[in-house]
Specification:
- This protein has helices spanning about 80-90, 130-145, 150-160, and strands at about 1-5, 20, 40, 50, 55-65, 70-75, 105-115, 115-125.
- With about 160 residues, the protein is an alpha/beta fold.
- The strands form 2 sheets. A 5-stranded mixed sheet has the order 2-8-5-4-3. It has a 3-stranded mixed sheet with strand order 1-7-6.
């Protein structure tokens, strides 16, 4: 089971624009960014444009639909007692272990920041609408809507479609 722990106050969770670069960077952690390495601008058509290690990148802005938000998370508390307290304080999570089944291990993730939009970068061209990441966001939203649609449980139990 996963539990995302949000900051205690909304001020602690700032909002950023997520950038998906078409490359693999073998680094995990913070860096001090400078305009020398990353300073995206806007081209004459209003699209994001930038250079990374001498390669020209063009961006496509993808906004999340109203009612959705993205979160950047990091590994949270490792202590099982701390994890149980977090889960017990969540009204939507039920712990059922009276029937003898072992409890699921709870993994806690801490929210670092939130985002409402992301920029998918392409090499010298704007990412197309069939790009893996652009399409993935759209399909994930459709799946989430279908899973959480009202009356879904009643329909599946009665066998109606």
């Amino acid at each position: 089971m996963l539990s995302i722990q949000r900051p205690k106050s909304e001020e602690q969770s700032s909002r950023f624009t997520l950038n998906l670069l078409p490359c693999r960077i073998h680094h995990d952690g913070p860096i001090n960014t400078t305009p020398r390495y990353w300073d995206p601008t806007t081209d004459k058509d209003g699209h994001p444009e930038g250079y990374f290690r001498g390669r020209k990148l063009k961006g496509r802005e993808v906004s999340l639909p109203v009612g959705y938000r993205g979160a950047v998370v990091r590994k949270g508390a490792e202590d099982n007692e701390a994890q149980k307290k977090i889960v017990e304080n969540q009204p939507s999570i039920r712990m059922e272990d009276d029937d003898g089944d072992p409890e699921d291990e709870v993994k806690v993730l801490e929210e670092v920041t939130q985002f409402d939009e992301l920029v998918v970068w392409g090499h010298e061209a704007i990412a197309e609408s069939d790009d893996t990441f652009v399409k993935g966001v759209e399909e994930w939203v459709k799946l989430a809507r279908a899973m959480h649609a009202p009356g879904r449980d009643e329909e599946s139990e009665s066998g109606k479609r």
